[in-house]
Fold this sequence. Notes:
Elements: H1 6-25, H2 29-47, H3 52-68, H4 94-99
Amino acid sequence: MPNLSLRTVIAAAIFLTAGVWFATLVPSREIALVMAILLLTVFLFAFEVVRVDVTAVGILVLLGLLGNAHALLGLERALLPASELFQGFASNAVVPSSAS
């Protein structure tokens, strides 16, 4: 585990508190799950707990795994179908920016 600063730990607690609060406000599990993934992504990008490219690929893998496990999570359908997981890489704007 990386050596986390006090600032990062406090920010993680704030993000976790915000996530729990948002989860009480949303009307469905799907929205709560998307909000949790969004908060996790913003936290990992902002505080660089791991490198940004590792975070991006990790979130992509997480979305793929959650797409396959939607029945276990009590969701009616997958948040992101496996067939659409890599659709963003078809854009010319995404590929060069990820290579640099």
